[in-house]
Every structure is written in C-alpha cells, then in structure tokens.
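Input record (one chain):
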Amino acid sequence: MTQRIGLVTVVVRDYDEAITYYTGTLGFSLVEDTPRGPGKRWVVVAPDGTVGTGLLLAKAVGDEQNRAVGHQTGGRVFLFLHTDDFLRDHATYRERGVHFVEEPRHEPYGMVAVFEDLYGNRWDLIEMTHKSAATRMSVTP
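The corresponding structure, as predicted from the sequence alone:
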C-alpha cells in the first residue's frame, strides 16, 4: 500500500490576503483557486518544486474557526519548510518582512529558525544535514 499526505489545511481569515502572503512573501506557487459556491473557494498553494503536498487555504467560518486562525497547534511549530539554502531563504524572508521569533541555530539535524506567518502560525525553516534521518522520511514495514 502506498499513501502520502496530499494537503494540510491552514485556516485563514481571507483567501486573497492569504494567497498574497504565501505567494508574494514566501514565494509559493498558487496551484489552484477554484470557486466552490457562495463565498467558498478551493485554494491550494505550495513551495516551488514541491511534489505532492500543498496547503489548502480554508477561510474560517464561524466563531470557533475564527478563533483557530493562527493557533491551530496551540503555539507549537505547525509546519516545517525544508530548503536547500537556509541562508538565502532566511535573508530573502527577512527582506520581505517575515517575523522570525529566534535567531538561526545549528542543530544536529541542520540549520533552523522559527518564523511566524501572517496569522501567527509557527514554522521551522530548515536546511537539513545529509546525515539526518528526517530527510529520508520513508517508512519501511
């Protein structure tokens, strides 16, 4: 059996605001933006070069979902953005106004720094070392 995670939902305040941030500030590609009835859209973004996994930007509806915007993991790091050039991407993101909550640090698995997206969701920007088991991300039976 082969399985993979296709999409991860990120609850957002506004579709267009989120598209602008993820494509303009983070440099992701807009994969799909399809109307789905009154006030609803199917919006998917993904980092360039990504194969198979993206973010579904879902507009919050109602009080409970609005409270979840930016707090989907209770303040923990939510998403992990792997890069082949940490210094390049860190500098680019800082120039574009991305808020890093810490200075870059070296860990046994690579170079990393935590940033917050426009809603306050925390992300790790990571350049993994070649020796790290996390880069393999394969599960064997």
